Amino acid sequence: MTTPADELRAAITTLRSLANAATDDAGNSHWSASRHFPNQPDATYTTLWATGAKPLIHGGGGRGRPPAYVSAPVGDYIAAMDPTVGMALAVLLEGVLSSNQNGAPAHEQCEAWCSPDTCDLSAALAVARAINTGGQP
């Protein structure tokens, strides 16, 4: 049987692996979204970029055509959840795991977020389960 600690460890490992792979592929862990036709109020085309590097979505583009795009809300969300966020979330889950096992956060970064009195194991497990199942119920 899988324990809550096992679920948290699996999510931490998955997040770190995915964040590192995405950073390696993109060339940077900080991502941004840029609007096509920003002066047009109904334009919702967004290109995703690794900061200082290359576009993250391939296809489209070509001789004078804009790069491939996604809708603005999707692009903004993807850019907001870049590998830097994944790594921070792994640290947070690690702090919850450590706090619930021995009463001390795993990292100094977690002290503001996690203490034996404030760590919410059920919320951390919900996040871990979403990661471990690829968002499937």
Task: Summarize it.
The chain is mainly α and 137 residues long. The chain is built from four helices and three strands.
Question: What does this 3D model show about the protein?
Answer:
The chain is mainly alpha-helical and 137 residues long. It contains four helices and three strands. The chain has a three-stranded antiparallel β-sheet with strand order 1-2-3, with helices on one face.
Average pLDDT, to the nearest integer? 78
Task: Give the % helix.
Answer: 40-55%
Helix-strand sequence: HEEEHHH
Please state the overall shape, judged from the principal axes of the Cα atoms: elongated
How much of the sequence lies in strands comes to 5-15%
Residue stretches low in confidence (pLDDT < 50, at least 5 long) are none
Largest sheet: 3 strands, antiparallel
Radius of gyration: 18 Å
Global structural class = mainly alpha
Strand order of the largest sheet: 1-2-3
Q: How far apart, in Å, are the first and last alpha carbons?
A: 19 Å
Count every helix, treating DSSP H or I runs of 4 or more residues as helices: 4
Oligomer: single chain
